[in-house]
Amino acid sequence: MHFYKLNQAALQSMSKALFTPEQMADLAEDVDTNAWEAKILRSYFEAESLRELPASRKKRWVVLKWLVNQFEQDRRYKESEVNQILKQFYPDVATLRREFIGYNMMQRQQGEYWRMPEMAWRTEAEQN
User: Fold this and answer.
1) Looking at the 3D structure of the chain, how many domains does it have?
2) What is the value of pTM for the model shown?
């Protein structure tokens, strides 16, 4: 049989390091952001059909982020495949493709499209 004893001093030290006010504020901000994004998606989608593309850049960013995540990261798609996937959600696929390219969410070359890593995407603020 094994017995273990918690080191209270070590736990308190870790707790102070992990739960600083700054880190707790960051966590709360992430939760708020996720809740806001979920609200936007509920507002603009009915089932999985996009009612309209938001005029607001911040809201549009949320919708585009959800849509581009329907594509696999390390795969190249023919334009017809991109259109087929996007038509499931919204009829104006040309606008969505242009938006993906404009936000650097996707790249295009010789009729092929591929999804860019999220760190390469432009934010809504960078679109101004």
Assistant:
1) 1
2) 0.73
